[in-house]
Design a protein that fits this description.
The complex is a heterodimer of chains A (263) and B (286). By secondary structure, chain A is of the alpha/beta class. Chain A has one domain: 2-enoyl-CoA Hydratase, Chain A, domain 1 (Alpha-Beta Complex). Chain A contains twelve helices and nine strands. In chain A, strand 2 and strand 3 form a beta hairpin. Classes of the chains: A alpha/beta (263), B alpha/beta (286).
Chain lengths: 263, 286
């Protein structure tokens, strides 16, 4: 039986799902974590560095929510500060310099909403990532593995290929936020979740993602191996693409065009 | 009440604003109460003063009125005026809502785009509409802004954009979110072509618009007292359970934190833009 959209949201938020670091550790070898945005701080909500995918060195970036209460507090529940996005961009620019593909794992309820985040330009940090990623000269693959919360998720998803796990969600706003704004009632989150079209199937039919990844054996070796194979296979294609940034531009350029009435 | 107090962009404005002239009261003339100085101002005076109160408070302004204020008379050529969002996700209540807004505002979408001259300088101009779902960005807004940046690249024109927005339009879901990436990529191409983009942030500029083309300009200006931020105040208060600092997310606060270049009062904007545009067009005189 097909789950309702809101059940998907709950599944996507389940803290027993593999987190960003689980993907890094199980798909890649020899991960070296690099810290800091070189401007202000290191944001533990975003983990990044270099690793090998098979033989190939790649830059990996993941939003990390943590599993235990303690980990989750340390990771700010996977809600990045502006420094997280600036660190991610720094690592992507480094990847570009050394010709390494970039692979992002996304799992966040959204960019952190706090006083400090606003003071240090949360909006500007996200905007800069969107702009810079659009012309980054190396392949980028982004995988939404849990929650894809709005601009905070998109800031790591201006990619050549965007994939979603079958129970991940991707949305412009949380169903609770949407319900409380539109209907002044967070209890209508179910209706909102349905209406927002936030499941992987919805995202695919809207042309926002290329692939839905099965969650069979999630967390097991076979599951990670499958993702590893898909990444290798896709990178083979992308590395040979001589119109990479042009194609990336067109990938986003066409989204929503058919929804615009021009009569 | 507390909210109204917070919305009051006081002190700085009052200090820097013009001295308040005593208000003449004509019996029967419609008035508006200024949320800053709490005085009633005759509408006729507000209109002749570009919707700025004597105390310096900048009222929100409709896109077309702003275009009349900024563009040289008769120079504005509107583009993409036929484009509007349908209801791509069949979102409940959206169709009715947008039809009501269209009738009430006289606009079909939340941004007006075109070309114009400002002080004789040719440019592309977009102005967002606060009275159309608070300037929210759906597929049509994203498409119009992207097309305008692409047109500007093709014709090697600078871009001037006035933003006002509650953010991405919820009712178009993920498609709205993707407009942030799409517009940003178009801004990047315009930038990489060596062309100038000036953004003027007006009250309020928030959410997905702040996190995309509002914060991607070469020169970022703002109106006095404009609310500029990513997350909304209520969300931040709920998340952090703390009260917010004074003047939080007002343009003066954002300037202090280094994210905008200058705050420009409405009556100075045209001269300011003209000069900046000219300074980026000096080769044309050689």
């Amino acid at each position: 039986m097909k789950d309702t959209a809101y059940e998907r949201v709950k599944l996507a938020r389940n803290n027993k799902r593999p987190s960003g670091l689980d993907y890094i550790k199980n798909i890649f070898t020899g991960f070296y974590e690099f810290h800091g945005d070189r401007r202000y701080a290191d944001d533990p909500a975003i983990v990044g560095g270099i690793a090998r995918l098979g033989e190939m060195p790649v830059t990996v970036i993941a939003i990390e929510k943590g599993h235990t209460a303690r980990e989750r507090a340390f990771r700010n529940f996977g809600a990045p500060q502006p420094e997280g996005y600036r660190k991610a961009l720094r690592l992507m620019k480094q990847a570009e310099k050394f010709g390494r593909p970039v692979i992002c794992f996304i799992d966040t309820s959204g960019a952190y909403c706090g006083v400090g985040a606003e003071e240090r330009g949360q909006g500007q940090a996200i905007a800069e990532n969107l702009m810079e990623m659009s012309t980054l000269c190396v392949p980028i693959i982004s995988i939404l593995v849990g929650e894809g919360g709005s601009g905070g998720a998109l800031a790591l998803a201006v990619a050549d290929r965007v994939w979603m796990l079958q129970n991940a969600v991707y949305s412009v706003i949380s169903p609770e936020g949407c319900a409380s704004i539109l209907w002044k009632d967070a209890g209508q989150a179910r209706t909102a979740a349905e209406s927002l079209k936030l499941t992987a199937e919805d995202a695919k039919s809207l042309g926002v993602i290329e692939k839905i990844l099965s969650e069979k054996d999630i967390g097991k070796k076979r599951f990670y191996n499958r993702i590893q194979d898909l990444l290798k296979e896709e990178l083979e294609v992308l590395i040979k693409d001589i119109d990479l940034t042009q194609n990336r531009y067109e990938r986003f350029r066409k989204i929503g065009v058919s929804a615009v009435n021009k009569e | 009440m507390a909210l109204i107090k917070f919305l009051k962009p006081k002190n700085k404005l009052e200090e820097g604003g013009r001295t308040a002239a005593p208000v003449q009261r004509d019996a029967g003339e419609p008035e508006k109460t200024c949320p800053n100085c709490r005085k009633d101002i005759p509408l006729s005076r507000l209109w002749s003063n570009d919707l700025v109160c004597n105390c310096g408070y900048h009222f929100r302004m409709k896109a077309r009125q702003r275009i009349r204020m900024i563009a040289d008379e008769g120079s504005f050529r509107e583009m993409y005026s036929n484009m509007k969002s349908d209801n791509p996700l069949n979102f409940p209540g959206y169709k009715e809502k947008i039809e009501t807004v269209r009738t009430a505002s006289g606009e079909v979408e939340a941004v007006v785009c075109g070309t114009a001259t400002i002080g004789g300088q040719k440019c592309c101009l977009f102005v967002m509409e606060p009275y159309f779902m608070m300037g929210s960005m759906g597929t049509a807004v994203g498409e119009k802004i992207t097309l305008l940046f692409e047109y500007a690249v093709q014709h090697r024109l600078p871009m001037v954009g006035f933003t006002v927005s509650g953010g991405a339009r919820m009712q178009e879901g993920l498609l709205s979110l993707m407009q942030m990436a799409k517009t940003s990529a178009a801004v990047k191409r315009h930038s990489d072509a060596g062309l100038l983009y000036i953004a003027v942030l007006t009250d309020p500029t928030t959410g997905g618009v702040t996190a995309s083309f509002a914060m991607e300009a070469d020169i970022t200006l703002a109106e006095p007292g404009a609310m500029v931020g990513f997350a909304g105040r209520r969300v931040i208060e709920q998340t952090t359970k703390k009260s917010l600092p004074k003047g939080f997310q007002r343009s003066e606060f954002v300037l202090e934190h280094g994210f905008i270049d200058s705050i420009v009062q409405r009556d100075k904007q045209k001269t300011y833009l003209t000069e900046i545009l000219k300074m980026h067009d000096w080769r044309a005189d050689l």
